[in-house]
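Renewal narrative, Specific Aim 1. Our central claim is that a sequence can be written position by position from structural information alone. The example that follows is taken directly from our test logs and has not been curated for this report. It begins with the C-alpha coordinates describing the chain, in the order in which they were read.
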Protein backbone atom coordinates (compact mmCIF):
# COMPACT_ATOMS: atom_id res chain seq x y z
CA UNK A 1 0.00 0.00 0.00
CA UNK A 2 1.28 3.44 -0.96
CA UNK A 3 0.02 6.77 0.38
CA UNK A 4 0.89 9.87 -1.62
CA UNK A 5 0.52 13.35 -0.19
CA UNK A 6 0.06 16.33 -2.50
CA UNK A 7 1.27 19.85 -1.78
CA UNK A 8 1.74 22.86 -4.01
CA UNK A 9 0.82 26.39 -4.85
CA UNK A 10 -2.77 27.57 -5.29
CA UNK A 11 -4.27 26.33 -8.56
CA UNK A 12 -1.09 24.52 -9.63
CA UNK A 13 -2.76 21.17 -10.29
CA UNK A 14 -3.02 19.24 -7.03
CA UNK A 15 -6.56 18.21 -7.93
CA UNK A 16 -5.50 17.31 -11.45
CA UNK A 17 -2.89 14.88 -10.10
CA UNK A 18 -5.47 13.46 -7.71
CA UNK A 19 -7.94 13.02 -10.58
CA UNK A 20 -5.31 11.08 -12.53
CA UNK A 21 -4.36 8.85 -9.57
CA UNK A 22 -8.00 8.02 -8.85
CA UNK A 23 -9.00 7.41 -12.47
CA UNK A 24 -5.91 5.70 -13.85
CA UNK A 25 -4.26 4.08 -10.82
CA UNK A 26 -7.34 3.30 -8.66
CA UNK A 27 -6.11 5.36 -5.70
CA UNK A 28 -8.63 6.38 -3.06
CA UNK A 29 -8.83 10.13 -2.41
CA UNK A 30 -8.76 11.78 1.01
CA UNK A 31 -9.16 15.56 0.96
CA UNK A 32 -8.12 18.01 3.67
CA UNK A 33 -10.33 20.57 1.89
CA UNK A 34 -13.41 18.30 2.16
CA UNK A 35 -12.58 17.62 5.81
CA UNK A 36 -12.32 21.37 6.46
CA UNK A 37 -15.54 22.19 4.58
CA UNK A 38 -17.38 19.68 6.74
CA UNK A 39 -15.95 21.30 9.88
CA UNK A 40 -16.72 24.83 8.59
CA UNK A 41 -20.31 23.91 7.79
CA UNK A 42 -20.71 22.27 11.23
CA UNK A 43 -19.62 25.59 12.76
CA UNK A 44 -22.04 27.60 10.59
CA UNK A 45 -19.25 29.63 8.99
CA UNK A 46 -19.16 30.76 5.34
CA UNK A 47 -17.23 28.36 3.09
CA UNK A 48 -14.36 30.53 1.84
CA UNK A 49 -10.59 30.59 2.01
CA UNK A 50 -10.55 32.77 5.14
CA UNK A 51 -12.72 30.25 7.02
CA UNK A 52 -10.54 27.40 5.78
CA UNK A 53 -7.37 29.05 7.05
CA UNK A 54 -9.01 30.00 10.35
CA UNK A 55 -10.47 26.54 11.06
CA UNK A 56 -7.35 24.68 9.89
CA UNK A 57 -5.11 26.82 12.10
CA UNK A 58 -7.46 26.33 15.07
CA UNK A 59 -7.51 22.55 14.64
CA UNK A 60 -3.73 22.46 14.39
CA UNK A 61 -3.32 24.68 17.46
CA UNK A 62 -5.75 22.58 19.50
CA UNK A 63 -4.49 19.12 18.49
CA UNK A 64 -1.12 19.22 16.67
CA UNK A 65 0.43 20.77 13.55
CA UNK A 66 -0.18 17.49 11.70
CA UNK A 67 -3.69 16.80 13.03
CA UNK A 68 -5.81 16.83 9.85
CA UNK A 69 -3.27 14.97 7.76
CA UNK A 70 -2.90 12.34 10.49
CA UNK A 71 -6.68 11.84 10.68
CA UNK A 72 -6.81 11.34 6.92
CA UNK A 73 -3.70 9.12 6.93
CA UNK A 74 -5.33 6.87 9.54
CA UNK A 75 -8.46 6.63 7.39
CA UNK A 76 -6.36 5.88 4.32
CA UNK A 77 -4.31 3.25 6.10
CA UNK A 78 -7.47 1.56 7.40
CA UNK A 79 -8.80 1.05 3.87
CA UNK A 80 -5.72 -0.98 2.88
CA UNK A 81 -5.53 0.44 -0.66
CA UNK A 82 -3.29 2.93 -2.43
CA UNK A 83 -4.42 6.43 -1.39
CA UNK A 84 -3.74 10.07 -2.05
CA UNK A 85 -4.09 12.81 0.57
CA UNK A 86 -4.72 16.28 -0.79
CA UNK A 87 -3.39 18.81 0.37
CA UNK A 88 -0.40 18.88 2.70
CA UNK A 89 0.20 22.45 3.87
CA UNK A 90 2.53 22.34 6.89
CA UNK A 91 5.99 20.84 7.38
CA UNK A 92 4.66 19.07 10.48
CA UNK A 93 2.10 17.23 8.34
CA UNK A 94 4.73 16.19 5.82
CA UNK A 95 7.18 15.03 8.50
CA UNK A 96 4.55 13.15 10.48
CA UNK A 97 3.23 11.25 7.47
CA UNK A 98 6.72 10.47 6.22
CA UNK A 99 7.54 8.90 9.61
CA UNK A 100 4.58 6.53 9.27
CA UNK A 101 6.06 4.70 6.26
CA UNK A 102 4.94 3.92 2.70
CA UNK A 103 4.46 7.66 2.17
CA UNK A 104 5.67 9.89 -0.64
CA UNK A 105 5.15 13.64 -0.98
CA UNK A 106 4.44 15.19 -4.39
CA UNK A 107 4.55 18.95 -5.00
CA UNK A 108 3.18 20.82 -7.98
CA UNK A 109 3.76 24.40 -9.13
CA UNK A 110 3.05 26.56 -12.18
CA UNK A 111 3.19 30.16 -13.36
CA UNK A 112 0.97 32.43 -11.18
CA UNK A 113 -1.11 33.85 -14.06
CA UNK A 114 -1.75 30.36 -15.40
CA UNK A 115 -2.74 29.18 -11.91
CA UNK A 116 -5.11 32.13 -11.48
CA UNK A 117 -6.78 31.36 -14.82
CA UNK A 118 -7.17 27.74 -13.72
CA UNK A 119 -8.85 28.59 -10.44
CA UNK A 120 -11.24 30.99 -12.20
CA UNK A 121 -12.24 28.18 -14.57
CA UNK A 122 -12.49 25.71 -11.67
CA UNK A 123 -14.96 28.01 -9.95
CA UNK A 124 -15.12 26.40 -6.50
CA UNK A 125 -16.53 28.30 -3.52
CA UNK A 126 -13.09 29.82 -2.78
CA UNK A 127 -12.16 30.72 -6.38
CA UNK A 128 -14.31 33.80 -7.08
CA UNK A 129 -11.58 36.31 -6.29
CA UNK A 130 -9.44 38.97 -7.98
CA UNK A 131 -5.86 38.30 -9.05
CA UNK A 132 -4.64 40.59 -6.23
CA UNK A 133 -6.62 38.57 -3.67
CA UNK A 134 -5.26 35.36 -5.20
CA UNK A 135 -1.69 36.62 -4.76
CA UNK A 136 -2.43 37.85 -1.23
CA UNK A 137 -3.94 34.49 -0.24
CA UNK A 138 -0.96 32.63 -1.60
CA UNK A 139 1.52 34.92 0.15
CA UNK A 140 -0.33 34.40 3.45
CA UNK A 141 -0.03 30.61 3.07
CA UNK A 142 3.45 30.43 1.57
CA UNK A 143 5.63 30.89 4.68
CA UNK A 144 5.24 30.96 8.44
CA UNK A 145 7.37 30.35 11.50
CA UNK A 146 4.26 29.11 13.36
CA UNK A 147 4.11 25.30 13.01
CA UNK A 148 0.28 25.47 13.09
CA UNK A 149 0.05 27.72 10.03
CA UNK A 150 0.45 26.94 6.36
CA UNK A 151 3.98 26.90 4.99
CA UNK A 152 3.65 25.72 1.42
CA UNK A 153 7.18 26.80 0.51
CA UNK A 154 8.68 24.49 3.16
CA UNK A 155 6.38 21.63 2.11
CA UNK A 156 7.50 21.99 -1.51
CA UNK A 157 11.13 21.83 -0.35
CA UNK A 158 10.30 18.61 1.57
CA UNK A 159 8.67 16.94 -1.46
CA UNK A 160 10.11 13.74 -2.86
CA UNK A 161 9.01 14.79 -6.37
CA UNK A 162 8.20 18.26 -7.72
CA UNK A 163 6.15 18.62 -10.89
CA UNK A 164 6.05 21.79 -12.99
CA UNK A 165 2.57 22.13 -14.48
CA UNK A 166 3.01 24.93 -17.03
CA UNK A 167 2.10 22.61 -19.91
CA UNK A 168 -0.78 20.36 -20.83
CA UNK A 169 -2.64 17.95 -18.57
CA UNK A 170 -1.32 15.10 -20.69
CA UNK A 171 2.28 16.18 -20.11
CA UNK A 172 1.66 16.31 -16.36
CA UNK A 173 -0.03 12.89 -16.42
CA UNK A 174 2.94 11.38 -18.28
CA UNK A 175 5.41 12.67 -15.68
CA UNK A 176 3.22 11.56 -12.78
CA UNK A 177 2.70 8.10 -14.29
CA UNK A 178 6.46 7.54 -14.60
CA UNK A 179 6.97 8.35 -10.93
CA UNK A 180 3.93 6.43 -9.66
CA UNK A 181 4.80 3.30 -11.63
CA UNK A 182 8.29 3.40 -10.13
CA UNK A 183 6.90 3.92 -6.61
CA UNK A 184 4.35 1.11 -6.93
CA UNK A 185 7.03 -1.25 -8.18
CA UNK A 186 9.14 -0.48 -5.09
CA UNK A 187 6.31 -0.20 -2.51
CA UNK A 188 6.54 -2.39 0.55
CA UNK A 189 3.80 -5.04 0.74
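The sequence written for that structure reads:
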Amino acid sequence: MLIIGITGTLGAGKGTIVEYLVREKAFLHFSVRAYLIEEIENRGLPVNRDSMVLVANELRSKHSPAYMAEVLFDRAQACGKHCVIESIRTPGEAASLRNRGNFCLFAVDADPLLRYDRIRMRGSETDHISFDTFLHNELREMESEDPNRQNIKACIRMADYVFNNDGSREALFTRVEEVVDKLLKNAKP
